[in-house]
Description:
globular, mainly alpha
Amino acid sequence: MWINSTIKMDIDKDILDTFKKYAKIGGFLFIILGAIGIFFPSFMTLGTLIFVSYLMLFAGVSSATLTWISNRKDWAGWLKSLLLIAVALYMIFYPMSGVATLGLLFSFYFFMDAFGSFGLGFSAQDTKHKWVWIFNAITSFVLAVIFIIGWPFTSLWLIGFFVGISLFFDGIALIVGGYAVDKIEEDVTKKDKE
């Protein structure tokens, strides 16, 4: 259905070619990173921890700079900055505790995702897609329980394993997207010739 609407749009060939190329390259890189995360989850966990820690540190410093420039008396801005910087430094200097903290955050995320999906599933009465939301909710709930049962000890490998799986399937989606653009271009070319 969406292919027909895409045909009607004015498509920039250079943008499509660039997307195709980099979607396929990025997809293969994501698949490789995902496989590393699946087979060596501890390394992926530490890589994720480092990435999240430095991202939080950057966010804390940026927030402090913005607070300094805009309103130096904003205690909430300073508190936010201080908390971001403190948690980031804690995770950087105590990586095993940081991994446990990250595992706890992942479990909170999965619980919230489960409750939100249950809400969407049960509010979508008499629709076919209701079961997709309920399945997603059950899956997220099970993942949260898996995190909590073995926490903090399972965090070292679970985080990397789940991030690896996510990257692996993101890579597949990018590759499929790149090939879908090929198919769309073929359909547009056939339509133009007719």
